[in-house]
Amino acid sequence: MGYTVSYRKDRSAWVVRCTVNGQRTQRTFQTEGEARQYALKAGAQQQEDTFNGVVGRKPKRTFSEGLQRMVSEYDVRSQKQHILLVAKWMDEHAPDVVISQELLDAARKMQKALKEKGLAQSTINNRIQVVKRVLSLAYREWDWLDLPLDGKLRKPSPKNERHVYLTELELAELLEAVPKRYEVERQVILLAMLTGMRRGELLALEPSNVYSGRIVLKPNQTKNGKPRVIPLSDEAQLLVGALPFATTSDKVRGAFEKAREAIGRPDIRFHDMRHCYASLLASKGETLTSIRDLLGHSSLTVTSRYAHADPARWDSVMAKLPRISNQTATKH
């Protein structure tokens, strides 16, 4: 690999030729001086690129290109608001940032800026997750990166975890309080209680997602991009017969807010249905690993924040503890 300079009599011109990665290129010059000057500069640039590892790398893509492709190829409705806000921040503070170490640096600056602005850690994590997903897809799906970079972007655990857990009777009361005119929305809320699914996941369900008494979510329908299988109870199976649900996220939110107001619990959020699902499973003796897989959590650490066992179960634990004080009578 190098540049050669030669004279072509048939064209009365000087030609500079080079072969890079099997591809041959050439340029023509009127004088020998111009040809040799070009060959010298081009050769020096080639050596520098080789030294820096540029030759043979994949073409650079911008974060904006990655976002556009992700939105066009995957169901990102659950991330829509965060995607828009991340795109806006990048446009203002890191325009045309390339998917590389450059993007990691920009994401960390965004992380710091949002923290200084006073946003909750969970909100910041949702924004960072948008960047992580683009990085993950760029490496694993699109072949835009030679090395995975998403693992280098950390999401600190939020310290604002919620502990709102409703009993089965309280869930039934909440469901009963949904106004009659919100029949479809009531079905969505009930299915959330019975499956622990996110609102975006529920509204994206299609008949093809139901198979043999289970809901099977495809990678492009989950928050972490991994498939998930959720078993359906008899009660839940009655709800998936008319998919997709003929409603919107705003209508479901409105129905839920009216129901919580009716029972005097304005503190309850729709996402708390996932917490209640996990808590009820734990209280009935289900293992954390099973709950983790059902909810689609990335680790047991995340699951353990929500799956708190029923305090009543500790009675049986106390009964198993040994009696100590009366076993060692004082001897004289």
From TrEMBL:
> Which superkingdom heads the taxonomic lineage of this protein's source?
Bacteria
GO molecular function (one): DNA binding
Q: Which Gene3D superfamilies match?
A: Intergrase catalytic core
Coiled-coil region(s) at which residues?
none
Q: Does the keyword S-adenosyl-L-methionine apply?
A: no
Q: Which UniProt keywords apply?
A: DNA integration, DNA recombination
Please list the residue ranges annotated as the Tyr recombinase domain: 161-319
Pfam families, alphabetically?
A: Phage_integrase
Q: Which CDD domains does this entry report, sorted A to Z?
A: INT_Rci_Hp1_C
Entry's Gene Ontology BP terms: DNA integration; DNA recombination
Q: What is this protein called?
A: Tyr recombinase domain-containing protein
The organism of origin for this protein: Kushneria konosiri
Organismal lineage: Bacteria, Pseudomonadati, Pseudomonadota, Gammaproteobacteria, Oceanospirillales
